[in-house]
């Protein structure tokens, strides 16, 4: 494989500032989720799918899960959303890449999601979303 395929392109000065501001915004959001308990604080948004239908989407429970994870309770975090490890890796990669862009002007790697990858992720999320809403054991464990 050609190494140039993965080499990120340089980003302009404006792009670097936007990346830095974005990394800061994600960090502030994380600090808010760490400080305020989403199960008790009333200002966190409620899932529109859950509000309209009563069904939990694949992302339902992530805010509460991240709060518990930030406080060291991995079991409760996984209970809120079993896919939280996937989301943690995605958020970590995003923040580190944004910091890399703002500091050195390049991301970690060039990201070009293939259609097969995107379809695969869509299938995983849809499957998880359907399974966590089935009213039979063991799938009821997946419900936040």
Q: Could you characterize what this model shows?
A:
With 144 residues, the chain is mainly alpha-helical. It contains six helices and no strands. It has helices spanning 13-35, 48-53, 62-70, 74-80, 84-104, 115-131. 16% of the residues are buried.
How confident overall, as mean pLDDT?
88
Helix content bin: 55-70%
User: How many helices does DSSP assign?
Assistant: 6
Shape designation: globular
Distance between the termini: 42 Å
* SSE string: HHHHHH
How many beta-strand elements?
Answer: 0
Question: Can you summarize the main beta sheet?
Answer: none
Structural class: mainly alpha
Can you tell me the residue ranges where pLDDT is under 50 for at least 5 consecutive residues?
A: none
As a percent range, the share of strand residues is under 5%
What's the Cα radius of gyration?
18 Å
